[in-house]
Amino acid sequence: MEKQLNLLPINQWNLADTKKPIIISGPCSAETEEQVMTTARSLSKNGITVFRAGIWKPRTRPGSFEGVGSIGLPWLKRVKKETGMHIAIEVANAMHVKEALEAGIDILWIGARTSANPFAMQEIADALNGADVPVLVKNPVNPDADLWVGAIERINKAGITRIGAIHRGFSSYDRSIYRNVPHWQIPIELRSQLPQVPIFCDPSHIAGRRELLQSISQKAMDLDFDGLMIESHCNPDNAWSDAKQQITPESLDIMLESLIIRKMNPEGVSLNTLEDLRFRIDKLDNELLDIIQKRMTLATEIGHYKKQNNMTILQQSRWEDILGTNIKKGEKRELSSGFIMKMFKAIHQESINKQTRVMNEKHTLAKNKNEQIIKAVK
Ligand SMILES: C=C(O[C@@H]1C=C(C(=O)O)C=C[C@H]1O)C(=O)O
C-alpha cells in the first residue's frame, strides 16, 4: 500500500547530473589523501559527478580496517574543491552526522547495519533535524521491507525531504553466488509503498566480486532503478577493505558504457503488440484463478471426508509426491524448481487452510455442546 511522505523528486535535488542512471562512485574506504585524489580525478574525468568514500567503516569483526575517521574529511573537501564533485559518506551515529554537516558533505548515507536498528535510526534522525541534506538509506541487513520503510520515515519526520534508498542485498545463511542476496522483491515492495523514493542499486555489496557487477547493474536498470552506487579504487587489488568488489575508474567507465538503459514507456513505440500480449495474459490469469478455485473446492471435499474418517489434514507422503512430480513436470516446461516449489507450497498452504476451516466447524459444534452442558448444570 502506498504511503505519503513529504519528499522532493530527485530531479530537484540540485545534483549536477540527474540523467538515469545517476552514478555514485568512489572507494569503499578513504585510505590516504593520494588514493582519494587519484580515484576522484579519474572518476571526474569520466563524467562521474558524485564521489563516495567511507571514513567510518562498520566491520563485521574487530581488527579489520575501521576507516581513517575524521582525518579523511579534509581530503574529501579537497575532492569537492578540485573536481566540483558532490561528496557522499556513510554516517552511523549522531557524532558522524554532526561532523559530516560541519565539513559540508553533500550527501549522507546510512548503512545496512544501522538501518536495521530503530534506536540508531532515531538517533541519526534527531541529529539531522533541521539540516538540509540528501540522505540515502541502505536496506537493513535482514530482508524486511517494513523496517526499511520505517527507517526512511524516521528520516523524513526529521524534516529531510531529499531521501533515496540504496539496495545493497541481504545477509543470508545459505550459500549463494552473492555476498548479499539481492531478494529483488524487497526493493520492488519498497517502490510500491514509497513510489516517490528514488532507488539506487549497490551492485558492489550484492556481488562481493567484480565479475557480477555488470549483470546486477543491468538487472537494476531493467527494474527501473534510478541510479547505481558502485565502488571504485585507483588500485583495487590493494584496497584496505573489500578489495574483490572494487574496480578501477576505467573499468567502471567500460562497464557503464555496456549497460542498456531501457525506458518504462519509450516515446514513439506503438503499444498495440504489448496490449495484445497483456490481454492474453489477463485471460490466462482468469483461467488460472478458475482452476485454483476448482482445486480448492476438491480440497474442501477432502476436508469433509477426513473429518468424517478422523484423518489428519497433512498427508506428508501425498504432499511430497505432488511436489516431486510437479517439479519434474515443471522442468520439462522450462519452469524453475524454485518457482514450482514456491507456487505449490502456497497452494498446499491454502488447501490446508480450507481443510482447517472444515475441521473447525466441529469446534463450533463442540462449543455449542459445551454451552448446552453449562446451561444444563446451572
Ligand atoms: C488435499 C489433501 O490434503 C493436504 C493437501 C494436499 C493438496 O492440496 O494437494 C495434499 C496433501 C495433504 O497434505 C490430501 O490429503 O489429498
Would you mind describing this structure in some detail?
With 378 residues, this protein is of the alpha/beta class. The chain has 13 helices and 8 strands. The protein has helices spanning 33-45, 73-83, 94-102, 112-115, 118-128, 145-157, 185-193, 203-207, 213-222, 249-258, 272-308, 316-332, 337-377; strands at residues 22-26, 50-52, 86-90, 107-110, 135-138, 163-167, 199-201, 227-231. Strands 1-2-3-4-5-6-7-8 form an 8-stranded parallel beta barrel, surrounded by 5 helices. Helix 6 links the parallel strand 5 and strand 6 (163-167). Helix 6 (145-157) packs across helix 7. The two termini are 51 Å apart.
Q: How many E-type strands?
A: 8
Q: Give the oligomeric state.
A: single chain
- Work out the helicity level: 40-55%
The CATH superfamily of the largest domain bears the name: Aldolase class I
Largest sheet: 8 strands, parallel, barrel
Tell me the number of structural domains: 2
Please tell me the overall pLDDT: 95
**Given the structure, what is the number of helices?**
13
CATH class of the largest domain: Alpha Beta
CATH architecture of the largest domain: Alpha-Beta Barrel
Return Rg in Å: 27 Å
CATH-assigned fold name of the largest domain: TIM Barrel
Distance between the terminal alpha carbons, to the nearest Å? Answer: 51 Å
Stretches with pLDDT under 50, minimum 5 residues: none
